[in-house]
Amino acid sequence: MSERKALVTGATGLLGRQVFKGFGNGNWTAKGTGFSRADGTTILKVDLGNAEDVEKALDEFKPNVVVHCKFSKTRTPSCATQLIRSLGAANRFPDKVDADPEGTRAINIEASKTLARLCAERDTILIYISTDYVFPGRPGEAPYEADVTPAPTNLYGQTKLDGEKAVLEEFEKAGKEGMGIILRVPVLYGEAHTNAESAVNVLMDAVLKVQDGGKGVMDHWAIRYPTNTEDVARVCRDIATKYLKAKDRASLPRVLQFSSEDHYTKYEICELFAEIMGLSLERLVANTEGNDPNASVQRPYDCHLSTKALKDIGIDVSTQDFVGWWRREKRAFRK
C-alpha cells in the first residue's frame, strides 16, 4: 500500500492531540486541523464551518482517513461561528451546550454533515467521534450494545446523535457504506494543557479549592467510565488500518464503541486525587441525590458502553488502569 495519510480535526484539543500523535507514531503521515492555534504546517488552519476551507485541506493533503475529534471546552461562545472556530470540533460539556444550542448544532451536526459529504466525494474514510451520552443511562440498562436504539436525555447527546445520523446518511447517499464510521467514547482523561480541557482532570480543581478553607459539593451518584486519550488514539488508528485494508467495508459495522471498564463517581475520583496528593477531602460533600427533576440538563446514571463490536472485528480494547496512570503521571496534577 502507498503512503497512508490521516487528517485529525480538533488536533489541538485533549483528544485530538493524542490521536494526531498516535497516527504520527504508527507508520502514518498525519496532519491536524485547528484554528487559533494552527501553525499552518502540521496543524492546518481550517474553519470547519467553511466548506471551502475543508475542501482545500482535503484536496491538498489527500488523506486516506479523517478522524473527526471532539474538543472539550468550558467557555460558552456567543455565536455559532465563534464556537466552530474556537473549538475546531465538538462541544463536550452538556451545560455549555444548552447555553448555545444553535452554535452546538452548527458544530455537531452541520459541520459534521459537510465534512462527511466532502469525504464521501473523495473516497476518504471518516471516523466520527461520538459519545456515551446518546444513551439515556437509566439504572439497570447498561452496558449498551452498539446496535441499541439511542435515546439521549440532554441536548448534547441529541446533537451528537444527530451528527452520527448525518455522517452515515451522507456516505449512504454516495453509495460509500462502510467508509463512514461512528466511534462512541465516554468521558476522557489524559495529558492536558489545562485541567479544564477534561471533565476528569478538572476535578483536581475541586480538590484543590477545598484545601483553602472553601467548601464544595460533588456528585456521588452517576457512574462514569473515564478512558485515557492515548487508548482512544490507538483504537482510532487500529480502526483506520482495519477499514482501509478491508476489501468489503460494507460488511463491517458502521457504529463502534470503546470504553474503559474502570468506573467511578466524580466524588470517588476526587477521593483518589486527594489520596495520591496527600490532601484532605473533609470539606467536599458527597451528593448522592442524583438528578434534580427540575434541572434543565438531565444527566444519565450509567451509560457504560459495550465494546463487543470492536472485539468482533479484532480490535484490541484493553485500556490503561485509571488509578495506575494517575499515580504514575503525578505531573498531570496542576494548580
Automatic annotation (TrEMBL):
GO annotation terms (biological process): S-adenosylmethionine biosynthetic process
Recorded GO CC terms: methionine adenosyltransferase complex
One function term, GO molecular function aspect: methionine adenosyltransferase regulator activity
A Pfam family annotated for this UniProt entry: RmlD_sub_bind
Residue intervals of the RmlD-like substrate binding domain: 89-315
Protein's name according to its UniProt entry: RmlD-like substrate binding domain-containing protein
Organism for this UniProt entry: Lasiosphaeris hirsuta
